[in-house]
Amino acid sequence: MYDSIIIGCGFAGAVLARELAEKGNQKVLIIEQRDHIGGNAYDVLDVHGILIHQYGPHIFHTNSQKVFEYLSRFTKWYDYSHEVVGNVYGKIIPVPFNLNTLNLVYGEEKGNILKDKLVTTYGMESRVPILELKNNKDPDIKAIADYVYENIFLKYTMKQWGQTPEEIDPSVTSRVPVLISYDNRYFQDKYQGMPLDGYTVLFENLLDHENITVKLDTKVNNIADIPEAKNIIYTGPIDELFDCKYGRLPYRSLNFVFENYKEESYQSHAVVNYTVTEDYTRITEFKKLTDQHSDSTTIVKEYPIPYTGADGEIPYYSIINEENLALYEKYKELLKDKNIHLLGRLAEYKYYNMDAITLKALELADELLK
Ligand code: FAD
Ligand code: UDP
């Protein structure tokens, strides 16, 4: 009855479904375990009338014109540039650490001398991963690196991953490099913004096609649950297809604690990272992401927790290391002769942003429709 069956209705599943339905004129069924579409990008009005992101703050950013133009078919954008500050023992500083942060920490006079040294060494507008900066032998640069490491990375990373920055994959801390620039934005991508009517509406528009059927509240428990079809695409965790028979793939999870305050504004920026104190990593104030107006405000605190696979726990971040990638490959071997494509941050065990997975979904659609 269906040409393609897709398990999971996040960006991976929804973009792929649209492409197969529209370009390939295929009948597509999406099976989703949750009671809503959108995967982790899902947003919804809370009881106070504030649009919140149920699974943590999602800010769209990309350098891919293709992805931006594609998604722009399904949403208009609120022109939002994301700026984050760190709370360092009560002192508020721009994060990523940049030349403005340098001046705040060292004062303008010393900051300008240090700036010249950084610019001569790395070049203006360069992005230097903290672990690379830490290797610099120059005593001044080493002192800056030590400050950034101690006050921005070490404790936040310990909270988030339960490991030090050296112990986790370097690609993770490189996401937030030291910026030799006066740009206070968290992302330097060419296109950034928030879907004007929210992510859920973007997904409703993506899925609004006569060839697409979405079945919610339906979990695929293992590989035997997947119905037959010409194309099968799985966007969930690969180990669960095989009852985790080699052991669970490790993930980090988060406990989101939402609070509402009867005041117009809670904090200076949409996101404040608590880089040294508190058990949570960051506080997001949703109104400020999307310019909402209301006499109350909703925030969320993110408490990182290990993922055990218990009911209700969500695997958010794959833990990239050699051992876990080897385990992932072992599961992938089991699919060798099967007609099942893996797509998405869970199924591919990758740390994908929304734009990257949108691009992967467009590419897989092209391949399947060849
Ligand atoms: P998901 O969104 O996780 O969707 C997978 C879907 O499959 C889910 O709905 C799940 O319920 C369903 N599913 C899984 N297994 C089964 C099964 N067995 N049966 C039925 N259904 C199943 N990216 C950005 O670009 N910008 C950001 O600011 C950003 N912030 C983030 C903040 C947090 C806290 C997190 C965790 C991620 C963030 N991301 C951000 C990443 C973004 O969430 C992902 O890129 C995106 O969600 C990936 O889409 P996906 O479809 O691969 O996965
Ligand atoms: N990080 C940090 N301090 C910060 C921001 C980020 O130590 O203030 C590190 C931390 O290890 C984190 C990683 O950089 O997991 C990537 O940060 P990002 O903000 O990209 O994480 P995400 O939004 O994906 O949770």
From TrEMBL:
The keyword ATP-binding does not apply. Residues 152-351 form the UDP-galactopyranose mutase C-terminal domain. Signal peptide: none annotated. This is UDP-galactopyranose mutase. SUPFAM superfamilies: FAD-linked reductases, C-terminal domain, Nucleotide-binding domain. Its cofactor is FAD. InterPro entries: UDP-GALP_mutase, UDP-GalPyranose_mutase_C. Belongs to the UDP-galactopyranose/dTDP-fucopyranose mutase family. The keyword Repeat does not apply. GO terms for molecular function: flavin adenine dinucleotide binding; UDP-galactopyranose mutase activity. The lineage of its organism: Bacteria, Bacillati, Bacillota, Clostridia, Lachnospirales. Pfam families: GLF (PF03275), NAD_binding_8 (PF13450). Keywords: FAD, Flavoprotein, Isomerase. It comes from Mobilisporobacter senegalensis. GO terms for cellular component: cytosol.
